[in-house]
Amino acid sequence: MDIKDLRNLLKMVTNTDITEFEWEQGEERIVIKRGQVAGGMQAAAPSMVMSAAAVPVAPAPGAAVAVTPAPAAEEEEGFETIESPIVGTFYRAPSPDSDPYVEVGSVIEKGQTLCIVEAMKLMNEIESEFKCRIVKILKENAQPVEYGEPLFLVEPL
Asked: What PROSITE patterns does the database record attribute to this sequence (predicted)?
């Protein structure tokens, strides 16, 4: 696989909801994983991983693929994040034609529903553990989320 094909492959994976992609042909093997990676950092772009034989996976001799980590969480002093307690799909509203549970600027009471995270066909309501104001919604509707991944930036009240 040449560098042009690899770039096209990375672009395709980046522009879809695919979280893991594996390709093998002869001695070439490419594994691309998106989302939560070891060390708890979110990958900004797909990353190349090691093959089972602990040999770096490379598309072609001499080709280099740069992987840049995502910037640190957007926490500012006085703000906290509300994280996903489970792996699943993030939904802002109870149904596609309903209003979202919360908007930026909403004041939320303890126990109020913030969103839904669907896991294995079960809709899990995520509730606030404290009174707060929504500063930023960090995920898009129907986006996959990992355990511990920030969903909301909030100001405790």
From this structure: BIOTIN (PS00188), BIOTINYL_LIPOYL (PS50968)
- In angstroms, the CA 53 to CA 42 distance is 25
* Three-class secondary structure assignment of 74-109: CCCCCCEEEECCCCEEEECCCCCCCCCCCCCCCEEC
Q: Which tens digits make up the pLDDT trace of 86-126?
A: 999 999 999 889 999 999 999 999 999 999 999 988 899 99
| Distance of alpha carbon 12 from alpha carbon 7, whole angstroms | 9
CB-CB contact of 116 with 94 (8 Å): yes
Kindly list the structural domains of the chain, giving each domain's residue range(s) and its CATH number in brackets, ordered by start: 1-71 (no CATH), 80-156 (2.40.50.100)
Q: What are phi and psi of 33, to 5 degrees?
A: -125, 135
Taking the chain, what is the end-to-end CA distance rounded to the nearest angstrom?
A: 55
Rounded-to-integer distance, Cα 150 and Cα 146, Å: 9
Question: What is the rounded CA–CA span in Å between residue 150 and residue 112?
Answer: 18
Question: How many Å apart are CA 104 and CA 109, to the nearest integer?
Answer: 14
pTM beyond cutoff 0.85: no
